[in-house]
Amino acid sequence: MTYHDRGESWFLAQLKPNCAHIADRNLRRQGFRTFLPMEEGSQNRKGRFIPTLRPMFPGYVFVFFDIAGGLWRKIYSTYGITRLVSFGNEPAMVPLDIVSQLMLRCDSAGKLLPPKLLKPGDQVRIASGPFADFVATIDDIAPDRRVWVLMEIMGGQTRVAVGADQLRTV
User: Fold this and answer.
1) Residue limits of the NusG-like N-terminal domain (predicted)?
2) Which has the closest alpha carbon to 137: 106, 105, 162?
3) What is the pLDDT of residues 23-49, one digit of tens each?
């Protein structure tokens, strides 16, 4: 018997602004299993780029529970949660294979792992540093895991070196 057969599944809870970690902690304290996938990014503070971890899906956390049990209703009164994503009167289930695939791409703490195989010609998004959120094309990969990418800047192509851990496939 699978979790799905017993009525247990993954659902999506909408968060209050800037409450991802608070809501995740409070849900776990109440006995719910949660999944908050995180990705590396950067934040510009006083002209310096500081590496940070940010939620992959800002404003949402995955919550695992049995909908038939009824105990899930206490999620609505959990500090940091706005509501459960619903269609009609009941929360909408997230397909199990979507959450499973996301979990496979993350470490045990929920941090997104860098892509395993990059090759020239791949489209990537830069996750951190001064070019965060730029989309680029891989030009070359050096043996020291430095990746040369081509980016469109001011109407021309520019070649930039970045670490492989800073890239996410598009």
Assistant:
1) 7-106
2) 162
3) 999 999 999 999 999 988 778 888 888
